[in-house]
Design brief:
disordered N terminus, SH2 domain-containing protein, two-stranded antiparallel sheet, SH2, 2 helices, SHC Adaptor Protein
C-alpha cells in the first residue's frame, strides 16, 4: 500500500489538546456586559442584551443562525417612548423593530399598521413565541412581508 504524500509547511494545530479549540464557524457573540439599565430591570437576561450596539446584536443573531433567533436591546434613541429594539433573524435578514412604551403598555413597530398592546416586554416576547410576528422589509423599498415566531434567544 502506498504511503500518503507528505505535506510541506506548518503542521496544523492539534485541537485535541486542552489549550486549543477549533475555530467556530462564525465569531462568537461579543461578551459585552449586560448593563441592565434602569429601564431593563426585570427583563429576562436570556434574551435581553442591554446596552449593546446594533452590530454586536446582529453578530449574536448570526452566530445562532436560525430563523426565529431574537434578542431585545436598549434602543439607540435612548428615549422613554422607545426604550427598546427587538431584533429578529429570519431568512438571513435581520429585522430591527422598535418597542414603544405608551402609558402603561408596550407596542411593537411604528404603530402605522395598528398594534397589539402588552403590559410588559416579557408578555410581548412570550406572546410572539407562539404567535407569528409580522416582519416587513422596509430596507429595499419593496415592503416584502414574512412571518416568524420568536424561537431562539440569542446570547450576549
Amino acid at each position: 500500500m502506498a504511503k500518503p504524500p507528505q505535506l510541506k509547511g506548518p503542521k496544523p494545530p492539534d485541537y485535541r489538546s486542552s489549550s486549543s479549540k477549533p475555530p467556530a464557524p462564525y465569531p462568537p457573540p461579543s461578551m459585552v456586559p449586560n448593563t441592565m439599565s434602569g429601564t431593563g430591570k426585570g427583563i429576562d437576561p436570556e434574551w435581553y442584551g442591554g446596552l449593546v450596539t446594533r452590530g454586536q446584536a446582529e453578530a449574536s443573531l448570526r452566530w445562532v443562525n436560525k430563523d426565529g433567533a431574537f434578542l431585545v436591546r436598549d434602543s439607540s434613541k435612548g428615549s422613554s417612548e422607545q426604550p427598546y429594539t427587538l431584533m429578529v433573524l429570519n431568512q438571513g435578514k435581520v429585522y430591527n423593530i422598535q418597542i414603544r412604551h405608551q402609558g402603561n403598555t408596550y407596542h411593537l413597530g411604528t404603530g402605522l399598521m395598528g398594534s397589539e398592546s402588552f403590559p410588559g416586554v416579557e408578555e410581548m416576547i412570550d406572546h410572539h413565541t407562539h404567535t407569528p410576528l409580522l416582519l416587513i422589509d422596509m430596507e429595499n423599498g419593496t415592503g416584502a412581508q414574512s412571518q416568524c415566531c420568536l424561537l431562539h434567544p440569542a446570547p450576549l
